[in-house]
Amino acid sequence: MSHISVRNLTVAYNGHPALRDVSFDIPDRQVTAIIGPSGCGKTTFLRCLNRLIDVNNSVRVQGQVLIDGEDIFAPRADVMSLRRKMGLLSQKPQVLPMSIFDNVTYGPRLHGVRKRAQLEQIVERCLRMASLWDEVSGRLRAPAAELSVGQQQRLCLARGLAVQPEALLCDEPTASLDPISAQSIEQLFMELKNDYTVVLVTHILRQARRLADYLVFFYMGELVEHGPAQQMLSNPSDPRTRKYLEGVIS
Fold first, then answer.
1. Would residue 70 be called left, alpha or beta, if left means φ above 0 and alpha means ψ between -120 and 50 degrees?
2. 72 and 148 in contact (C-beta within 8 Å)?
3. Are the CB atoms for 4 and 197 separated by under 8 Å?
């Protein structure tokens, strides 16, 4: 059974549907790319997976999102525990107004880690995983805001990894980066999928072709089709998917 399963998920804002009856399983330890035209529900879907959708008071969610078999929208669901399992990388780096060290340790401290030696180990391990350690190891007490945008995005990745999530939710994570920084982030995803499930929302088809093991195509709030990336890219079963891949629908 997949760590993440979606069953009949329907989402509406002020009564206007954003997602309609979405059901599929997200493969473990693969890069799943969510593609589709702007406004088709990609980000709404991603925000359901860690319940960030809750910040909008006008939203109504029906159906189930099962993480390790438990419905995260059940009345007694532990949202803090859920968000620990679901690391998030946003479109623009969201560094905290504190040092590099404190950014990485923010989550572990929130979950009860207090020993200095343990925190230092977490910082080094996660910065190395994010390919940032060699660049910042001598200035861990410097403000995170002093880093370049590409470095900030890798710091956000390290911060997400610090709480040992099961999955990484990535919402167009290279959209604000220069090509070299974007390439670095993409390479990290290819390495991290050996240990994590990566769910990537992207509007860049070339990126989906490079990274995806599994593709999910949304159109106007509907899940049109999903399947192994190579199969969908070479022979999509729905004409809407074919038109999108050919650039007819954008």
1. beta
2. no
3. yes
Per-residue pLDDT, 1: 58
Judge whether 175 and 91 are in contact, CB under 8 Å.
yes
- pTM > 0.85: yes or no: yes
Q: Report the alpha-carbon distance of residue 184 to residue 134 in Å, rounded.
A: 14
pLDDT bracket for residue 82 (50, 70, 90): confident
Q: Return the HEC string of the chain.
A: CCCEEEEEEEEEECCEEEEEEEEEEECCCCEEEEECCCCCCHHHHHHHHCCHHHHCCCEEEEEEEEECCEECCCCCCCHHHHHHHEEEECCCCCCCCCEHHHHHHHHHHHCCCCCHHHHHHHHHHHHHHCCCHHHHCCCCCCEHHHCCHHHHHHHHHHHHHCCCCCEEEEECCCCCCCHHHHHHHHHHHHHHCCCCEEEEECCCHHHHHHHCCEEEEEECCEEEEEEEHHHHHHCCCCHHHHHHHCCCCC
- Architecture of the 4-246 domain: 3-Layer(aba) Sandwich (3.40)
| Averaged pLDDT score across all residues of the chain | 93
pLDDT tier at 248, thresholds 50, 70, 90: confident
Q: d(Cα 112, Cα 164) in Å, to the nearest integer?
A: 14
Q: Which residue has the tokens 């509406």?
A: 12
Report the range of poorest mean pLDDT among 1-5, 23-27, 130-134, 154-158.
Answer: 1-5
| CB 232 within 8 Å of CB 215 | yes
Give me the residue spans of the domains in the chain.
4-246
Residue 238 scores a pLDDT above 70: yes
